[in-house]
Design a protein that fits this description.
The protein is of the alpha+beta class. It contains one helix and two strands; from the N terminus they run αββ. The chain has a two-stranded parallel sheet with strand order 1-2. The chain is globular and about 35 Å long.
Length: 53
């Protein structure tokens, strides 16, 4: 489990903004998994889906 002290400042801003606005946090990594269904919905996508064809 990751604790807030292990997050970068940008990750904290991203998570706080998504939670405050009731948004789904979309990410390519597992850094926000512990917040899923507690503070917000976290959705994982593959980095390859972001690459142009």
């Amino acid at each position: 489990m990751c604790y807030p002290s292990q997050y970068g400042k940008n990750d904290l801003w991203i998570a706080a903004t998504a939670a405050l606005l009731g948004l789904t946090l979309v990410t390519t990594d597992k850094d926000f998994d512990h917040l899923h269904q507690i503070f917000m919905e976290v959705k994982h996508i593959s980095p390859q889906t972001l690459m142009p064809k």
